[in-house]
Amino acid sequence: MADSFSLQNVLDNFKSCLNDHKEVCLKYYISGWRELVSFMNSLGSVFAFISKDAVNKIQILENFLTGENGTHYVTVQSMVKYELDNELVDLTKRGSHPESGCRTLLRLHRALRWLQLFLESLRTSTEDSKTSVMCSDAYNASLAQHHPWLIRKATGMAFCALPGRDTFFEVLNAGSHEEVVTLLGEALPLISEVYQITEDVSPRQNKAEEG
Ligand code: 1Q0
User: What's the predicted TM-score (pTM) here?
Assistant: First the structure.
């Protein structure tokens, strides 16, 4: 993880994510998320409950990657195949494999959809756009449908604590507003491609989603 957040670091990780076979490398996927979490941490403690959950999920994937079966966890594709072939994915949370790579990845994958929507609206926003509105619109169109009422309420309150658009652009640490917009324009196709390739990985993965 870098010492301080920069949008460029996020971009670099998602750029490195896809290998020559268009497979998603878990190592860079994880690093990309770590960067994003470090950014979220800089926004204040009101986001701590989100950050904690994200770090927990990132850590689960990292433990698989560095664990004894790590060679199966190099790409999302190999992980899904390995876990499904070996019946390591539970259909219910109370099963014997509650924290499989597949279920953990799916939570982050849904969050990546939120990110994609949020960044796109940030990129096309105008001076009077509100980050909290952009953020919650993106959330309602993605993650919210998977979250219970309490989480939705807590998340909605956290969004209200987001800095305004100007400050937000500054914390992104990527130069002038124009430069940020350019960089967002470069980052978005990469994030979208990683999202889409993960989405297409396995029709069986969706069946395993609640496991
Ligand atoms: C900048 C504002 C950050 C807003 C983050 C939006 C996502 C809201 C997610 C709310 C999660 C609430 C905590 C608990 C959720 C879990 O119940 C849920 C399900 O897990 P489980 O094990 O119970 O089935 N977990 C999830 O859905 C995973 C959520 C992961 C969220 C990861 C968010 C990381 C955010 C990064 C900041 C991005 C900054 C954007 C701008 C950067 C520009 C490049």
Answer: 0.93
